[in-house]
Amino acid sequence: MRRRIVAGNWKMNKTAAEAAALVGELRPLVSDVSNVDVVVCPPFTALAAVAPALVGTNIELGAQNMHWEKSGAYTGEVSAEMLLTLGCRYVILGHSERRQYFHETNSEINKKVKAALAAGLTPILCVGETLEEREDGQTETIVKEHVTGGLLGLSPDQVGKVVIAYEPVWAIGTGKTATPDQAQAVHAFIRNVLKQISNSTIAETVRIQYGGSMKPENAKELMGKPDIDGGLIGGAALKADSFAAIVKAAV
Ligand code: PGA
User: Fold this and answer.
1) Does this model's pTM top 0.85?
2) Catalytic residue from among 95, 133, 146, 187
3) pLDDT digits (tens, 9 = 90+) for 67-109
4) Nearest residue CA, atom 1 of ligand 1?
């Protein structure tokens, strides 16, 4: 049985003080949850304020991006070590907004995945098709490219350390959620791709989150599907009670 993982992707929201206040509200609401990994991913500028508020709690810290190099002349970027030493355990990589607005490619994302693993961070690799690609019948092709491209060159053991987030782009921030059956079909497909690039034992251990307008009302049904092992939550993660309700739906 895979341990479920629910992560909040706060995107470019919350100042450091607002972020600390939000985790202050969230802490007591999820403190009795022991069988789900709970992760919050505030913006870089709030990580240092949030980290101390999470010490001794069951909530872990993640970041939303990083660079693949260890250090150097990369103005505006941060390294895996910088995140790790702030207390991060996870890093979201290849989010569709990074792919779309910042033109990140599968090969760059692959370098980031490798650098994160080498540093001891757990990558949450985001994959997913646009509406146009879905309507064009390209969903599996695109998702396979994202998965194989992002995980290229990883050993089976390394594949086993990655979390995948399936996020259909048309469902992100739109209020349109994939139906549980639509999501399950792609999750099962992803697990099959993982089998091809590692082996069936490893593929069975990898957690695959669903993301895209997951909310308290639909979380339980989505996570009730056999290959949906949690959620990557955007909008609903910005309110402590909504995020906590999704965490509880994963219990
Ligand atoms: P959403 O975002 O829950 O607001 O749709 C999910 C995400 O982009 O990770």
Assistant:
1) yes
2) 95
3) 999 999 999 999 999 999 999 999 999 999 999 999 999 999 9
4) 234
